[in-house]
């Protein structure tokens, strides 16, 4: 297909060293994208600018926003959304789906083990320090049996497509992974703006997440409960993910509560309703471990519920995800994922791990210190893209600073080769044209005693700044609708 | 339903209703004054003062000259002024936000759209020539919200709480508007031989409450003080009347807890009592001392609101 001079793709610049998901190395459109490229190519720039602003308005009207505080007034912003969707082939999706489930199951068995017999450590497969030095390992969880044996009910797996065309897992998020509501609202926004494109592709619907989540929550009910009362707990309406919390509560048809709406009496949890206390059985919690219960964790937490952990330990209430899961999404544990999968499931990993150097091992530390310019240095216990240094972006002076940081606390850091995230054509408002931007994919997996579910879609996140590799929304990332095609 | 969330829904209802009354009051008063028959009611100062009175801001009788643009801005788009249209819709939305999981997507989106319309309305346009456009849009959008509340929510306790909020606020605003226009009619009497009982202000009052046409249909006569007050206070079939609001409050409170109607400490009992007293009032008796009547009804509405807080929202 040739580029037409008057359309929105006419000024698309292709950097041949990057892996472009829609153009091959000769600049031809990949077969899957041909129809889409044609359809979008019909729009004039003016047309597209208009569509884009309508899509933005749709997010404002749907109230899918977060607040930014200035000195004078609070401003409401939307998470940037790109109208050009990403397509994933059924064959590729099959690998992603099986791989995500495999990782969730292995992580779950790993969590059970390290909070009980610690076989994997005793057999020398992973070192004790990895666990004992982790800030997210909760001694309170030792020998606690979560209902159904499930710790990570909900997992978010961050996956990239490297320039070899294969998918790699960057990290597992098994604390309170967020973003699933954006998968659904991105779809809604795209349908409103460009409904015509859906006539040409058969993509899976993404609206069945909530029913599967509710199914899961109900299946984790405490013993002796017939019809469980499930709730979602949120830190409150000023939390940046509040939209998601209210969305999930609404679509599941359950109550959205804050810590102050709950209280614990004789190790049972109740919520304060207009007709008095009502018992709560299952809590999908969207507040972090440390804030759950001021009696057990951070004493200054006002978000949690005093006595909640004691009720949980007694088995009177279920928490999803279980407390203490953070230890397993530590980036240092990540590097052992191939071993963990092999050990518990006796399977080879379906999804690749990125080669990782542990700064805690002296020989690897030396390699890292000498090759910082070729590596990405990551703190092991941070989320949201904070604290990451990308070697080839640093000045000599900055490299020295990173070296000192790593040497001072080697356990805190791991290093990986700089992975080349694939790029996807993304509409850039400033230039009113499409440009290449790096993307990744977060999938959402639900794991129950007799349940495995991966949402067919996932959140494609885009790094909006040119050349930037960090896609997190807290770092100015946007997102795209993601189509998993039917076979 | 959570007690905290019920409180938010109650106030969401109140603020939605309040937004409408403020906007319509501005619209009707401003535009009916443009060709008003009398010197005083034609005067811009008179109208601006009337608007300020309605939103509870007392202006020094003669000394202070009100600036038109400043006054319109204050009541319409001033975030610093608690009783402004912009603050009412902001509060309605804030309350809806925290109950977002309980209300329908359709209702929430309409509130949100409404909020963005008001927040993004250019101030300059509004104070110069946007008053009509702005207030008409605001009143229409509140009608949409009422439609979404009635048409998309489950008619259960969530609905009952919102409707309680709407009707308590409606009665409150209607009585404030009556008070304001009654006051205007008193001030305007005598100019060009205008008599109190046939004042031009009664027509304005009816239009402020969107009840003019139906009042004409009901009485088949030009509005007088007695017929206007009777219609707006006592007629149970006039959807804006105090009686109608009380009847609705009475219906909805019984949904919330039917068994408590005979408990003398319950909200349901109090509402029933206030309503019963009202049913056997007649207009001549009210007109004898309208000021005490107004104080009394506002007092009762506050009491109902406080009782609800104690019974349902105490968390």
Automatic annotation (TrEMBL), chain A:
It comes from the Bacteria. SUPFAM superfamilies: Glutathione synthetase ATP-binding domain-like. It holds the Pfam family CP_ATPgrasp_2. Residues 85-463 form the Circularly permuted ATP-grasp type domain. This is Uncharacterized conserved protein, circularly permuted ATPgrasp superfamily.
Automatic annotation (TrEMBL), chain B:
Residues 1-313 form the DUF403 domain. Pfam families: Alpha-E. It comes from the Bacteria. InterPro entries: ATP-dep_Glu-Cys_Ligase-2 (IPR051680), DUF403 (IPR007296). PANTHER family: BLR5612 PROTEIN, SLL1039 PROTEIN. This is Uncharacterized conserved protein, Alpha-E superfamily. It comes from Kriegella aquimaris.
């Amino acid at each position: 297909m040739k580029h037409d001079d008057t359309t929105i793709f006419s000024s698309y610049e292709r950097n041949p060293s990057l892996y472009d998901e829609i153009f091959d190395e000769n600049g031809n459109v990949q077969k899957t994208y041909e129809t889409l490229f044609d359809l979008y190519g019909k729009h004039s720039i003016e047309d597209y600018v208009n569509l884009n602003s309508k899509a933005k308005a749709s997010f404002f009207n749907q109230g899918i926003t977060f607040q930014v505080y200035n000195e004078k007034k609070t401003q409401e912003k939307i998470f940037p959304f790109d109208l050009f969707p990403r397509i994933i082939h059924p064959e590729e999706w099959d690998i992603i789906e099986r791989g995500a489930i495999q990782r969730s199951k292995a992580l779950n068995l790993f969590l059970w083990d390290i909070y009980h017999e610690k076989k994997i450590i005793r057999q020398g497969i992973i070192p004790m320090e990895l666990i004992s030095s982790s800030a997210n390992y909760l001694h309170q969880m030792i020998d606690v049996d979560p209902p159904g044996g499930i710790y990570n009910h909900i997992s978010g797996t961050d996956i990239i497509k490297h320039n070899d065309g294969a998918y790699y897992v960057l990290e597992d998020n098994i604390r309170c992974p967020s973003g699933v509501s954006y998968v659904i609202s991105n779809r809604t926004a795209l349908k409103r703006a460009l409904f015509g494109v859906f006539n040409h592709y058969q993509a899976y619907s993404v609206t069945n997440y909530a029913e599967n989540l509710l199914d899961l929550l109900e299946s984790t009910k405490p013993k002796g409960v017939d019809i469980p009362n499930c709730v979602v707990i949120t830190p409150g309406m000023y939390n940046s993910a509040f939209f998601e919390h209210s969305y999930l509560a609404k679509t599941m048809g359950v109550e959205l509560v804050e810590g102050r709406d709950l209280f614990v009496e004789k190790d049972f949890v109740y919520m304060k309703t207009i007709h008095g206390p009502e018992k709560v059985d299952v809590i999908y919690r969207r507040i972090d471990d440390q804030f759950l219960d001021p009696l057990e964790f951070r004493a200054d937490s006002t978000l949690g519920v005093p006595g909640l952990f004691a009720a949980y330990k007694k088995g009177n209430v279920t928490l999803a995800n279980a407390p203490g899961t953070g230890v397993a999404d530590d980036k240092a544990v990540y590097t052992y994922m191939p071993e963990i999968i092999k050990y518990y499931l006796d399977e080879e990993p379906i999804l690749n791990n990125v080669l990782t150097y542990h700064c805690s091992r002296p020989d690897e530390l030396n390699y890292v210190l000498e090759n910082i310019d070729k590596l990405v240095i990551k703190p092991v216990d941070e989320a949201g893209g904070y604290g990451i240094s990308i070697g080839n972006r640093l000045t000599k002076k900055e490299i020295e600073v990173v070296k000192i940081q790593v040497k001072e606390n080697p356990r805190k850091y791991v290093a990986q080769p700089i992975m080349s995230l694939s790029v996807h054509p993304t509409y850039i408002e400033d230039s009113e044209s499409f440009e290449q931007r790096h993307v990744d994919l977060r999938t959402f997996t639900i794991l129950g005693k007799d349940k495995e579910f991966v949402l067919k879609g996932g959140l494609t996140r885009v790094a909006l700044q040119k050349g930037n590799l960090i896609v997190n929304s807290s770092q100015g990332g946007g997102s795209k609708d993601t189509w998993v095609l039917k076979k | 339903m959570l007690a905290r969330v019920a409180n938010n829904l109650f106030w969401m209802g109140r603020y939605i209703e309040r937004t409408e009354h403020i906007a319509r009051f501005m619209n009707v008063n401003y535009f009916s004054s443009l060709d008003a028959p009398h010197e005083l009611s034609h005067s811009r100062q008179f109208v601006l003062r009337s608007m300020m009175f309605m939103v509870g801001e007392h202006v020094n009788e003669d000394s202070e000259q009100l600036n038109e643009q400043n006054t319109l801005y204050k009541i319409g788009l001033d975030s610093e002024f608690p009783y402004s249209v912009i603050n009412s819709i902001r509060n309605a939305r804030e309350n809806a936000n925290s109950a977002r999981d309980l209300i329908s997507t359709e209702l929430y989106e309409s509130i949100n759209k409404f909020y963005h319309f008001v927040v993004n309305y250019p101030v300059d346009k509004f104070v110069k020539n946007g008053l009509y456009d702005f207030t008409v849009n605001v009143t229409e959008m509140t009608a949409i919200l009422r439609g979404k509340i009635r048409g998309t929510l489950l008619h259960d306790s969530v609905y009952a709480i919102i409707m309680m909020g709407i009707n308590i606020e409606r009665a409150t605003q209607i009585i404030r508007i009556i008070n304001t226009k009654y006051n205007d009619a008193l001030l305007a009497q005598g100019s060009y031989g205008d008599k109190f009982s046939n004042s031009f202000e009664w027509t304005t009052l009816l239009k402020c409450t969107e009840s003019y046409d139906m009042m004409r249909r009901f009485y088949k006569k030009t509005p007088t003080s007695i017929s206007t007050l009777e219609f707006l206070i006592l007629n149970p079939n006039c959807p804006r009347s105090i009686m109608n609001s009380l009847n609705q409050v009475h219906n909805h409170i019984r949904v919330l807890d039917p068994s408590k109607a005979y408990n003398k400490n319950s909200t349901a009992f109090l509402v029933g009592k206030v309503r019963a007293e009202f049913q056997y009032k007649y207009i001549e008796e009210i007109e004898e001392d309208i000021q005490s009547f107004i104080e009394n009804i506002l007092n009762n509405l506050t009491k109902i609101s406080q009782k609800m807080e104690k019974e349902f929202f105490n968390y």
